[in-house]
């Protein structure tokens, strides 16, 4: 089992529509830890950590599943970041 961490920036209509909660539910369902935070530019920045294959499912979910009913994902950019062993759950800020 290979643990990785990724940082994902999601742009579109992702603030004020429950998007961070949407991300948190999926992350928890997949067993990921990390966070989702609104950014000043209107995007949401998510940090997710877990098994490499599960992270791929998380990215696929963010890329192909539109948050209902008012949200819209225009782009998902990701990069690998350092694993943080202190993370124990998925939070929203």
From TrEMBL:
Domain of life assignment: Bacteria
Active site: residue positions: 20, 38
Residues spanning the signal sequence: none
Entry-linked Gene3D superfamilies: 3.30.70.100
SUPFAM superfamilies associated with the record: Acylphosphatase/BLUF domain-like
Reactions catalysed according to its record: an acyl phosphate + H2O = a carboxylate + phosphate + H(+)
Gene field: acyP
Transmembrane segments: none
EC number(s) on file: 3.6.1.7
Residue stretches making up the Acylphosphatase-like domain: 5-93
UniProt record similarity statement: Belongs to the acylphosphatase family.
Protein name: acylphosphatase
Keywords: Hydrolase
Molecular-function GO term, any one: acylphosphatase activity
The protein's enzyme class: hydrolase
């Amino acid at each position: 089992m290979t643990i990785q961490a990724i940082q994902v920036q999601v742009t579109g209509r992702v603030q004020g529509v429950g998007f961070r909660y949407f991300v948190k539910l999926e992350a928890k369902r997949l067993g990921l830890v990390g966070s989702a935070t609104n950014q000043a530019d209107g995007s949401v920045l998510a940090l997710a950590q877990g098994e490499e294959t599960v992270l791929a499912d998380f990215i696929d979910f963010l890329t192909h599943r539109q948050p209902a009913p008012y949200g819209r994902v225009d782009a998902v950019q990701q990069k690998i970041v350092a694993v943080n062993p202190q993370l124990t759950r998925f939070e929203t800020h």
